[in-house]
Amino acid sequence: MNRVTLVGRLTAKPELRYTGSNLPYARFTVAVNRNFRNNDGQTEADFISVIVWRKQAENVCNFLDKGRLVSVDGRLQTGSYTDKDGNRRFTTDVVADSVQFLESKNSRSEGAVSDGPSPYDYQDAPDVNVSEDPFADFGDSVSIDDNFLD
Q1: Is the dihedral of CA 94, 13, 142, 31 positive or negative?
Q2: Predicted confidence (pLDDT) per residue in 128-141, tens digit
Q3: Domain containing residue 91
C-alpha cells in the first residue's frame, strides 16, 4: 500500500502550470514539523514536495498562499532524470489525491500582533528550524466537504 498523509504549511505560493496537452498541475512544498526536538531544543521540519493535478491544482493556486496550513493525502512517486551536466538525479514527490485547506484565508492575520518573524515564514526552506509547534493553537478540528475541491 502506498499512502501518504501530511499536515503542514506551504513554503511558497503555488504556481499553476500546464502540460503539453493543456492539463493543469501545480507543484508546491509543505513544511511538516518532526515529532521531536533536536539537541538544541529546536523542532525541525521536513520539506516535502507535492504535485497536484486538474481542478485541485487550480483551487490550490487560487486559494492558498505561503504559510497556509494544509492537509495532503496521496501517494509517493519516485523518478529520475539527467541534469544539464549529465548527472542522474532522483526525485521523490507526493502526488496528491486530496488537498484540504485547514484554516480560513484571513485566520492568520485577524488580530495578529507581530513581534518579528513568524516561525512559519519559510523563506530559506531547507535551513529553517521551527521553534514552535505550528499546530499548538490550531483549535478544534475543521470539517471541509470533499466536493469543495472538485
Answers
A1: positive
A2: 444 444 545 555 55
A3: 4-141
Whether 142 shows a pLDDT value over 80: the answer reads no
Residue 50: HSE in the Cβ half-sphere, 13 Å Cα cutoff: 36
What is the distance between the alpha carbons of residues 98 and 56, in angstroms, rounded to a whole number? 8
Q: Pairing between strand 43-53 and 88-101? A: parallel
Distance of CA 127 to the CA centre of its chain: 16
Query: What is the CATH classification number for the domain harbouring 40?
Result: 2.40.50.140
Whole-prediction pTM: 0.66
From the list 25, 8, 146, the residue with the least C-alpha distance to 68 is 8
pLDDT in tens, 31-69: 999 888 888 888 889 999 999 999 999 999 999 989 999
- The x, y and z cell numbers of residue 102, run together, are 485547514
On whether residue 82 sits in a domain, the answer given is yes
Cell 485566520, located at residue: 107
Contact 70, 99 (CB under 8 A): yes
Burial of 83-104, coded b for 16+ CB within 10 Å and e otherwise, reads eeeeeeeeeebbbbeebbbbee
